[in-house]
Amino acid sequence: MADEKDREEIIVAEFHKKIKEAFEVFDHESNNTVDVREIGTIIRSLGCCPTEGELHDLIAEVEEEEPTGYIRFEKFLPVMTEILLERRYRPIPEDVLLRAFEVLDSAKRGFLTKDELIKYMTEEDGVSLCRLGW
Amino acid sequence: MGCSSSSTKTRKSETSLKAALIIQNWYRGYKARLKARQHYALTIFQSIEYADEQGQMQLSTFFSFMFENYAHVHKEELELRKQSLESEQDMRDRHDYVDLIDVPDSYNGPRLQFPLTCTDIDLLLEAFKEQQILHAHYVLEVLFETKKVLKQMPNFTHVQTSPSKELTICGDLHGKLDDLFMIFYKNGLPSESNPYVFNGDFVDRGKNSIEILMILCVSFLVYPNDLHLNRGNHEDFMMNLRYGFTKEILHKYKLHGKRILQILEELYAWLPIGTIVDNEILVIHGGISETTDLNLLHRVERNKMKSVLIPPTETNRDYDTDSKHNKVGVTFNAHGRIKTNGSPIEHLPKHEWEQIIDILWSDPRGKNGCFPNTGRGGGCYFGPDVTSKILNKYQLKMLIRSHECKPEGYEICHDGKVVTIFSASNYYEEGSNRGAYIKLCSGTAPRFFQYQVTKATCFQPLRQKLSLSQWAFCMENILGLNLPWRSLSSNLVNIDRNGNVEYMSSFQNIHIEKPVQEAHSTLVETLYRYRSDLEIIFNAIDTDHSGLISMEEFRAMWKLFSAHYNVLIDDSQVNKLANIMDLNKDGSIDFNEFLKAFYVVHRYEDLMKPGVTNLG
């Protein structure tokens, strides 16, 4: 039991270090805050893939009571550590990504044209999105 | 409810949607990782760059320390000043010196004809494209003439734009000739209908600083009312010593380089501080502080601001004791000159000097307020409130400045009131950033134009491998040990089948230890660590740029150095060293040889230490 606890502590310490480093890159004023618009990039650069909706929820969690446009490190660290520990928002594995492309390429050509990709990426069906829980 | 075909259809579109979302998600993650990587790279480069500049400012405090505490050095400094004053007189009288330099018939570089015309601009551009070097005779003549004309310019040039006469503003070029060519290619050559402002930092770092300076000066002489040059923090002979321009000149002009350097010292100080466009846009190199006083800056004698590293003396209580003292403790005679030992020394009063430093060195930041610029060691960080306050005070609408590299070549901050414009693309490395310029026209919004000199993409992953020549170049560039890297490569790194170097393999067997405390470091290590500072200090003492300093100067210099940096060096050690280094026993030291000797010695000592890896 003690061993496991030690291991977890080490893992947490490593996560803290990673999160701090990623945060510092975007902390332009060196005052432990980053612009809220960079939070998505920071989280994704740590290997997580939240959807836009999940990202919005996350931001709400780490924002100040009165949103200032800045996120403080003290608030960000615990939330991000939890995410990493729970392995939340893991990126989809590559073979699933490949299948996703294959689904869109109904004619089985092995490629998608630029226009097709644009069409798929930008069309939104609000109802379906809600139903899928995205 | 029962229509199976429609439910299959819905299922199909659901799958497509899911697929699209997966792809979208993955792509966002990928872009974010690339962005983070780019940010990491930029942060690293910037930290290195600013830490270096911080070292410069630390030297400045070192010099102040010198002035305040060491009377005999003070006297020496006065001697330096007297000498440079005299030489200024000399140069005015010795304009003929330029004519004494002959241009041999064998010279097949560009030949300029005075008075200059636009033909000469074209001539220069063509020649520099062919990588020719302009003869020293012409360089000196251009610099002389430029200085003469600059002297007549006010501290701030006032410019008006109109729909038929848009103004183009360019930022830092830093000796990157390709970027200047790109700008002229995209935007046209300077002329009466195509005016330009170059906002400082034309020189240092890049390898064509003198060529850029020549093009700009010649263009200025042909179109003095339509080509405007603002001084940057690198238009400073002391900065040039460290950041490469001095080296470039002495390398390209082995015979007359020193002469060119002397003229440059003065020319820089005559460059205007800034430009004001349409009475509403202020264009300066660095930034502002909350105490920036434009009216004062219009009046200062800007030519007295020789270098950021030659600060004003605060007091001169040792000398003129019967003059009146004002509150600051500086004595002035009727003409505002500080009197010392009977000879007039031309200094700027401290508050004026600081005003100019703020203009040349400050950076905007998001946080309100005005804080000392700890990154660079000089000037300040100014917030949006400071910008609003100062712009409102002088009824200005916008501040255009340069001084900082931006990934897109420009950046707008402080709610649209501050624009940074940077014109050296690929500044840190290929693909690091774009360059940009602004076109201004009264009544319309400023337009930005970007470019990047090479076509290499920004997002190349690190491959952990370099070609042998790239690796050798890096090693030499960083360590400066002048060693035959290619021959040594087999002992230092792993090389794969294709002849590519796995550069990380050098570090496999090396164990990084905590740095040794300064108090215990040997003389050799100290010299090595501070070698670039020493080089600058030595160069400053060596007023005739002869490459020699006297033994006495060397000893005094070393004493000061050790006192300031709190390093304990024994007197006898210094003396012994000085004597050894004076190879021909004539009482003077060729300090370039001296410094070089220490690079190699240090490395050798390193290899002999036990515990250092056997790299064979």
Automatic annotation (TrEMBL), chain A:
<feature type="domain" description="EF-hand">
    <location>
        <begin position="92"/>
        <end position="127"/>
    </location>
</feature>
<dbReference type="GO" id="GO:0005509">
    <property type="term" value="F:calcium ion binding"/>
</dbReference>
<feature type="domain" description="EF-hand">
    <location>
        <begin position="14"/>
        <end position="49"/>
    </location>
</feature>
<protein>
    <submittedName>
        <fullName>EF-hand calcium binding domain 2</fullName>
    </submittedName>
</protein>
<keyword id="KW-0677">Repeat</keyword>
<dbReference type="InterPro" id="IPR002048">
    <property type="entry name" value="EF_hand_dom"/>
</dbReference>
<dbReference type="InterPro" id="IPR011992">
    <property type="entry name" value="EF-hand-dom_pair"/>
</dbReference>
<dbReference type="GO" id="GO:0097228">
    <property type="term" value="C:sperm principal piece"/>
</dbReference>
From TrEMBL, chain B:
<keyword id="KW-0904">Protein phosphatase</keyword>
<dbReference type="Pfam" id="PF13499">
    <property type="entry name" value="EF-hand_7"/>
</dbReference>
<dbReference type="Pfam" id="PF08321">
    <property type="entry name" value="PPP5"/>
</dbReference>
<dbReference type="GO" id="GO:0005509">
    <property type="term" value="F:calcium ion binding"/>
</dbReference>
<dbReference type="GO" id="GO:0050906">
    <property type="term" value="P:detection of stimulus involved in sensory perception"/>
</dbReference>
<dbReference type="GO" id="GO:0004722">
    <property type="term" value="F:protein serine/threonine phosphatase activity"/>
</dbReference>
<keyword id="KW-0464">Manganese</keyword>
<dbReference type="InterPro" id="IPR018247">
    <property type="entry name" value="EF_Hand_1_Ca_BS"/>
</dbReference>
<dbReference type="InterPro" id="IPR051134">
    <property type="entry name" value="PPP_phosphatase"/>
</dbReference>
<keyword id="KW-0479">Metal-binding</keyword>
<comment type="similarity">
    <text>Belongs to the PPP phosphatase family.</text>
</comment>
<dbReference type="InterPro" id="IPR013235">
    <property type="entry name" value="PPP_dom"/>
</dbReference>
<dbReference type="InterPro" id="IPR006186">
    <property type="entry name" value="Ser/Thr-sp_prot-phosphatase"/>
</dbReference>
<protein>
    <recommendedName>
        <fullName>Serine/threonine-protein phosphatase</fullName>
        <ecNumber>3.1.3.16</ecNumber>
    </recommendedName>
</protein>
<dbReference type="InterPro" id="IPR029052">
    <property type="entry name" value="Metallo-depent_PP-like"/>
</dbReference>
<keyword id="KW-0677">Repeat</keyword>
<keyword id="KW-0106">Calcium</keyword>
<dbReference type="InterPro" id="IPR000048">
    <property type="entry name" value="IQ_motif_EF-hand-BS"/>
</dbReference>
<dbReference type="Pfam" id="PF00612">
    <property type="entry name" value="IQ"/>
</dbReference>
<feature type="domain" description="EF-hand">
    <location>
        <begin position="569"/>
        <end position="604"/>
    </location>
</feature>
<dbReference type="InterPro" id="IPR004843">
    <property type="entry name" value="Calcineurin-like_PHP"/>
</dbReference>
<feature type="domain" description="EF-hand">
    <location>
        <begin position="529"/>
        <end position="564"/>
    </location>
</feature>
